[in-house]
Amino acid sequence: MTFSTFPPAMPPPTCPHCAGQHSTPAAVPVMEQLHLCSQRLPAAAGDVTLLGELGQQLNHCYIELDTALLRGVMDMRAAHTGLLALLTLLERRDEPLLFSSEEALALLEPIQQRLKQGLDHFNHLL
């Protein structure tokens, strides 16, 4: 069993409406962007133009939120599957382990990478 067959990490999310050209700063987490939009909503009650802009910003945030959550969950699931496969391999062995700690680390490296990528997707939101 090899772990090199993990699917590659997914690229960062891009907005389908603006091909990745976002007007909101990437440094501001998505949840903060949603909070800022919700605070501006009462002031825009009578302004159709401002409501339209706010609606577009909210839509963009929800697309980014959904994309990041999906990719994070996919990375976490891949890491979980890798850990289960490794545990199964270790539990069902009929003879003593015949690999070094360096080889064990090599088996765990792709799992660790997927966990980190999944967490990075979630951290981008907060």
Description of the molecule:
This protein has 126 residues and is mainly α. Helix content is 63%, strand content 0%. It has helices spanning 30-40, 48-91, 101-125. The chain is rod-shaped and about 75 Å long.
Which features does this protein show?
126 residues; mainly alpha; 0% strand; single chain; DUF1484; disordered N terminus; DUF1484 family protein
The number of helical elements comes to: 3
What is the subunit arrangement here? single chain
Q: Judging from the principal axes of the Cα atoms, what is the shape?
A: rod-shaped
Ranges where pLDDT stays below 50 over 5 or more residues in a row are 1-7, 10-25
Largest sheet at a glance? none
How is the secondary structure organized here?
Elements: H1 30-40, H2 48-91, H3 101-125
Helix pairs in contact: 1-2, 2-3
Summarize the structure.
The radius of gyration is 21 Å and the shape is rod-shaped. It has three helices and no strands.
